[in-house]
Every structure is written in C-alpha cells, then in structure tokens.
C-alpha cells in the first residue's frame, strides 16, 4: 500500500492545462424489476479547464477500472505530467497504480482521511452530473444508463457553459489556451 501526502492542499486553481488532475469513482444504480444493479464511473478532471480528460464505466469498482481510466488519460494527453490527486481509495493506494504515476513522471497527492473537501472539484463534478442527469430518474437498463452518462460527459465538456471559464465550455477553454500559446 502506498499513501501520498496532500500535495494539492486544496489549491484548486491552475494557469495551464494538464498541470493538476483530480480523480474519483462514483456509483450509479439501475433496476431490473426489484433487483438493484450498479455501474461505476471513474473520471479524471483537469483543474485548469474543468474538462473530463478521460473516463471509464464498469461493473466493478476495482483496480482495472482506475488503471484503464488513467491509461485513457495519458493516451489523450501523452505529454502531460500533472500533479495527480485522489482520495485514499484502495485503487489509488496500490503500488501498481503509484508505479504507473512514477512511470509518467507524475507526483501523487491524496486527500486526508475523512476530508472529501480535499477533492472538492471532483466531488463538485459528481454533484453536477447527478443533479443534471441522474437524480429523479429511474434507469431500468444498463445500456440506457451508460449511454446517458456518456452523453452527459460529452455535453459537459463541449456544450455546458461555465462561469469560472469566462462563459466558455471546458473544451473551448482548453482550446483557447492552446491557440493562445
């Protein structure tokens, strides 16, 4: 088991893309008759533009889910070596996960035990996503739930205007920086 210090220390601001990433896993329920099923969404959020860099949806909250999310993020942003912040979930404290971060020249940071606010922007994203597309609905098929989550993340990154991003969408804000550089 590997535990990192809280290097991020609630400094949720950033002036450049891919300098600080936060991550977490959240669960979503769907129902088949009276049977309750769960899917898990693992996502990585960039603190500069608040875009979801990568995500994976799976039936189990396990190491492969988090490893695959990380793999998708480094494939999408191959030159990135951000500070990588998470909670102290078993997936993030695994030696194998820590080694992947080291291999990609990333510094690992972890929230303190019992302080979910240490990962506030990621928790905030879960709140937005669940409030805008999940709460108040009853999903009865896995495929419909997964498609709805995927559609929402696309909407969030490409169409949802953010005040903190000067009334731009996350991907637009990201591209604005790239074009100005």
How would you explain this protein's 3D organization?
There is one protein chain. By secondary structure, the chain is of the alpha/beta class. It is built from 5 helices and 5 strands. It has a 5-stranded mixed sheet with strand order 3-2-1-4-5, with helices on both faces. Strand 2 and strand 3 form a beta hairpin. The longest helix has 17 residues. The termini are far apart. The model has no long low-confidence stretch (mean pLDDT about 95).
Secondary structure topology:
Blueprint: E1 20-32, E2 35-46, E3 52-58, H1 63-76, E4 83-86, H2 95-103, E5 107-110, H3 120-133, H4 142-158, H5 170-180
Parallel strand pairs: 1-4, 4-5
Antiparallel strand pairs: 1-2, 2-3
* Rg, Å, rounded: 16 Å
**Strand numbers in spatial order across the main sheet:** 3-2-1-4-5
Question: For the terminal residues, how far apart are their CA atoms?
Answer: 40 Å
> Shape from CA axes?
globular
| Percent helix | 25-40%
Could you tell me the strand content as a percent range? 15-25%
Listing every helix as H and every strand as E from the N terminus to the C terminus, the arrangement reads EEEHEHEHHH
Global structural class: alpha/beta
The total of beta strands comes to: 5
Number of helices: 5
**Average pLDDT metric:** 95
Largest sheet: 5 strands, mixed
Uncertain ranges: none
